[in-house]
UniProtKB/TrEMBL annotation:
Residues 1-24 form the signal peptide. It comes from Pristionchus entomophagus. The keyword Signal applies. SMART domains: CLECT. Keywords: Signal. This is C-type lectin domain-containing protein. InterPro entries: C-type_lectin-like (IPR001304), C-type_lectin-like/link_sf (IPR016186), C-type_lectin/matrix_domain (IPR050828), CTDL_fold (IPR016187). It holds the Pfam family Lectin_C. It comes from the Eukaryota. PANTHER family: C-TYPE LECTIN DOMAIN-CONTAINING PROTEIN 180 (PTHR45710), RH26557P (PTHR45710:SF26). SUPFAM superfamilies: C-type lectin-like. Residues 36-134 form the C-type lectin domain. Gene3D superfamilies: Mannose-Binding Protein A, subunit A (3.10.100.10).
Amino acid sequence: LFQTRMSLRSLAIVLFSTAALAEAACPSSEWIEYGGTNKCFLFDSETKMTYKAAINHCESIGASLVSICSFFENQFVRGITRGADTWIEPKTDCDYKNYLIGSEPTSMKSCRVLTDGWDGEWTSADCDTEKHHVICSMKAPRPSSFRFRRFFRFF
């Protein structure tokens, strides 16, 4: 009986003494990490602003207006924005584009907007006059990792 209790206690210590807790990689709980890419996103669902104001807003918090470089990232950002028309930044080193047919920007005053369309299509909008939501992104300040916490005080 003594040996059985010791074995059970040892098993309990092993099971509960090293519970892995995910350590957040983004600056705060308001930011959302895009799994494994080391990027964090912050969506402002309350405020609409012009393109230039959106860029300034993101820069003021140490981030940049979101750039989308893949179908999967586009769908991830679309999920965060829940269909709200949102400014996006073109990235010159990305091949991915998702414009609605005939809606690519045609002038310097045309900026890109992620729409509420079925596939998260992009359209163009007047940078100076139109107001849309903003989503900022940044590299995670530290990589995602697992931290082990010990609970020996319970035994």
